[in-house]
């Protein structure tokens, strides 16, 4: 496999996480970075922090090109894969520029904020012959990877029902995330993790029926029933940013299969993390605790980027990073917002 040169655009929290994860890769390496901030181009990342992982430090960027203008990175022949870690409202324009420059693209989720932009991105990928991959990292976390494999393999029988939850307190670590016009707000920036995983694991629903909470014109909390053509498949999710500061983040799932229930939960509490480890609950009452990989979130991002690097080498789109599925995840979120506002079920566009 060719050693793939990665160019990271945007050195904020997520750009730093992608950089740290890429240092663990075998088949790819970061060869270039782009930031409008001169201090960051010189390796001063001490002002970067997020809701997980390490705080930024002084980084040794020797041997890596550092650009202020994204056009210079796109013109760099050493860059094979452009890794876009920019604000959500910049995803579409920059991804299309990178594709038109003949680069493969890995863009952070969501694919875009509007379906029309997502469609333009997919069209640009088709026209360029390059891959548009969207960095939905949830399927690379070990508990979610286990559930995905269990459902898809059928090893515990048919999936009958599922419920996911993902709640945060109001984000205060980034002004961009807190700006619904730039991020899409919790209904997209946060909840799209769930809609993507539901589409990947359970299939894309035909419609949604959602109740929610709206603040300042933005939908900040959703409770959704996903409507499938199969009347014997019941899937639901709760997601939003109404949790108090003492619990800044919590997520988990239950999958009900014919011969097992899969259960997992995690919450970051002010006093101590609360973990309900992955459990496989069997009909005879046995509870199995599967051996999982590293719980370090950086490793999940490493695995995600490794898949993108392999795809850039082979030219084969990976299912977990599919641009089409990412577009469908956005369509589900948009339908949920429509359902909240109308009080009626909404079909997926």
Highlighted features:
6-stranded parallel sheet, Rossmann fold, alpha/beta, 9-stranded mixed sheet, 33% helix, Dihydrodipicolinate Reductase, domain 2, 349 residues, 2 domains
What does this structure look like?
The strands form two sheets. A nine-stranded mixed beta sheet has the order 14-13-12-11-7-10-9-8-15. About 1% of the residues have low confidence. It is globular and about 55 Å long. The two termini are 38 Å apart. The protein folds into two domains: 132 residues, NAD(P)-binding Rossmann-like Domain (Rossmann fold), CATH 3.40.50.720; 179 residues, Dihydrodipicolinate Reductase, domain 2 (2-Layer Sandwich). It has 349 residues and is α/β, with parallel strands linked by helices. The protein is 33% helix and 28% strand. It contains twelve helices and 15 strands.
């Amino acid at each position: 496999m060719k050693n793939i040169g990665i160019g990271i655009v945007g050195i904020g929290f997520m750009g730093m996480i992608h950089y740290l994860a890429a240092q663990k890769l075998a088949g790819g390496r970061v060869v270039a970075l782009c930031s409008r901030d001169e201090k960051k181009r010189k390796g001063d990342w001490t002002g970067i922090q997020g809701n997980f992982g390490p705080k930024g430090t002084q980084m040794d960027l020797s041997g890596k090109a550092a650009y202020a203008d994204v056009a210079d990175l796109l013109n760099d022949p050493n860059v094979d894969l452009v890794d876009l870690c920019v604000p959500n409202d910049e995803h579409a324009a920059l991804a299309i520029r990178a594709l038109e420059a003949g680069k493969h693209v890995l863009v952070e989720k969501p694919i875009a904020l509007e379906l029309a932009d997502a469609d333009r991105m997919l069209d640009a990928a088709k026209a360029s012959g390059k891959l548009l991959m969207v960095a939905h990292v949830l399927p690379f976390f070990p508990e979610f990877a286990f559930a995905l494999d269990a459902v898809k393999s059928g090893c515990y029988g048919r999936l009958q029902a599922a419920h996911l939850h993902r709640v945060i307190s109001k984000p205060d670590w980034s002004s961009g995330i807190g700006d619904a016009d730039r991020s899409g707000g919790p209904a997209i920036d946060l909840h799209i993790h769930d809609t993507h995983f539901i589409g990947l694991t359970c299939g894309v629903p035909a419609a949604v029926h959602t109740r929610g909470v709206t603040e300042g014109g933005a939908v900040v909390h959703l409770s959704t029933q996903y409507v499938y053509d199969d009347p014997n498949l019941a899937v639901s999710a709760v997601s939003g940013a109404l949790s108090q500061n003492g619990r800044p983040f919590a997520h988990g799932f239950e999958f009900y299969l014919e011969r097992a229930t899969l259960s997992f939960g995690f919450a970051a509490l002010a006093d101590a993390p609360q973990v309900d480890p992955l459990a496989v609950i069997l009909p005879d009452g046995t509870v199995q605790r599967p051996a999982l990989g590293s719980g370090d979130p950086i490793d999940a991002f490493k695995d995600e980027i490794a898949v993108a690097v392999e795809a850039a080498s082979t030219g084969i789109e990976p299912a977990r990073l599919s641009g089409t599925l990412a577009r469908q995840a956005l369509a589900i979120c948009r339908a949920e917002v429509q359902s909240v506002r109308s009080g009626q079920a909404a079909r997926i566009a």
